[in-house]
Amino acid sequence: MIFLFDRFVSLFYLPNILLFQVVNVWDLHDYAFKTTIPAYEVLEAICIIHTGTLFSSFLGALSPHNGKGISDTSAIHYVTVGERGILRIWNSERAVCLYEQKSSDVTVTSEIDDESKRGFTGAVILPRDGGLVSVTADQQFLFYSSIADGQLVLTKRLVGDNEEILDMKFLGEEENFLAVATNLEQVRVYDLASKSCSYVLSGHADIILCLDTCILSCGRVLIATGSKDNTVRLWDSESRKCVGIGKGHMGGIGAVAFSRKEKNFLVSGSSDRTIKVWSFDGISYDVDQPTGLKAKAVVAAHDKDINSLAVAPNDHFVCTGSQDRTACVWRLPDLVSVVVLRGHKRGVWSVEFSPVDPCVITGSGDATIKIWSIADGSCIRTFEGHTSSVLRASFLTRGTQFVSCGADGLVKLWTIKTNECIATYDQHEDKVWALAIGKKTEMFATGGGDAVVNLWYDSTAADKEEAFREEEERVLKGQTLENAVQDGDFSKAIQIAFDLNRPRKLFQLFSEICRKKDDRHQMEKALCDLGQEQLRLLFEYAREWNTKPKMCHIAQLVLFQVFSSISPSVILEIKGIGEVLEGLIPYTQRHFSRIDRVVRSTYLVDYSLAGMGVVEADVNDAKEEEEQDHAQNNGEALEDTTRTKKRKSSKTGKTKSKKLKG
């Protein structure tokens, strides 16, 4: 039920009586039944049209077209969607349908047997005048937000489920679109800019297995599809119509390919083991009914199903790959066998001509990729690396590289000259069936059983440019760092060293600060300006320095400064700091134990030297000993003088006595 002011509209449906597929209108003032409006289909949703919205402005343009006035202001206008897949606008007072779509935008699949599951399952009017969005039974979102020529225009289509993606090709002159064949009988064309489904090509009666695209000289873009319904269809992307049908195969079409040069024929390969060349010269692109394609040549090519085929760049050859483990090269247009490529141990899933050399690349169920010479059919190179069947392989960068994908869900990039895989990408969760190579945009797309389309871009030039820019910025910062060191601005130098991620330079800066004790306030300022990530790096650097005896004293200085200038609560908020601190504790304890042992050992040395008299015990004792020595020296001098005088006096007396005697 949907309520609006004093009335509400309800759906009423009896499955066995068509006339009761109706809309009932009730008055909420007295809860009285007012009217019944037959819808003649099973309705899934009703959306009330409010005044001032996009659809209310659309109502004014309806009366001149259908002659049914809508001047009654008390009427309720609403949109209904149901099993028919058609939007309709109704007037509740006159019980008339004011607008009905000419054709349904819902793509119906033949696998759905229940008619009730072929249309819309829900709808809602978006707020802020965003238009109407409706949901289909096959999980698509259809957005109607514009009006042209009195008709609602489908502006966007979002696909909720692609199912299994079997093949894809880029579309358009600028390759802005991607044609995708899923596990349905439809081709979905995606706009790569908006990532939405631009339109759907419907017409096959069974699952589409393969497709190819080409651009004619007149600029018209064509799409060729092969299906399990044993037919080949040719589509015009501008009119979005089927312009040609090729009938004659007795089995499902497993591969189709346009001519590469002349672009006036296409080749198809089928499970009936034959290949056919179809000419589409004289096809009219303005008719409503498709024209029958004529087969120019037919040949029984293989002993088992044909999985893939490719046309040479000069349109002289076509190569086919089959489940019979061989690939064959045929001359066009008469399909004469040129060479048979034998060597794979399982079926061949992919074939493609080199854009520059006369060779063919093949991918097989034996998990190998081989490059063959067309001249003699010899195998030139074999590439191994996939763990399961190789489902697609295509050349890149003018034949110097190629990309492959397989049942292992891997996408691999190979260099032919070195015979090695240079990159492996794991972005799929299931088999990668489809691979599309862009000729102008230097990108490719992959899709597979996980219903995901991945777009890959060549980032080599961008990576080189980014690396050059980073190197240039690193050199400039390095020069700024050296200038800061020369100027003695250690705070700025430490910050730049962190930006450049140079732990060795940081150690040298901290060592310089350690030698200049007056500059430690700069280190404190620099540490306070660090963020949590930089602090975590500093602790990691200190943990490494702390493990080396020659660097541990700088690590301890840094740790002391960090714990002194930064709050512990801030340190504990750093992510993973607990593990770093646990690595710091054992070596720190070891360093302090070693220092303690060294200090204690110095006491024994001092005691030994003091006992040996080499080291003076005290300064005062030294002064007293010096005074005593001085006094003793003075006493000894006096005694020597006295003794000298006594000797002189004794000698004089003897002399006198001798003189007297004489």
Automatic annotation (TrEMBL):
InterPro entries: Utp13_C, WD40/YVTN_repeat-like_dom_sf, WD40_PAC1, WD40_repeat_dom_sf, WD40_rpt. Residues 620-662 are annotated as: Disordered. Keywords: Nucleus, Repeat, WD repeat. Its main location: nucleus. Residues 644-662 have a biased composition (Basic residues). WD repeats lie at residues 222-245, 246-281, 299-332, 341-382, 383-424, 425-456. It is found in: Nucleus, Nucleolus. The keyword Repeat applies. GO terms for biological process: endonucleolytic cleavage in 5'-ETS of tricistronic rRNA transcript (SSU-rRNA, 5.8S rRNA, LSU-rRNA); endonucleolytic cleavage to generate mature 5'-end of SSU-rRNA from (SSU-rRNA, 5.8S rRNA, LSU-rRNA). GO terms for molecular function: U3 snoRNA binding. GO terms for cellular component: 90S preribosome; small-subunit processome. It holds the Pfam family WD40. Residues 479-612 form the U3 small nucleolar RNA-associated protein 13 C-terminal domain. This is U3 small nucleolar RNA-associated protein 13 C-terminal domain-containing protein.
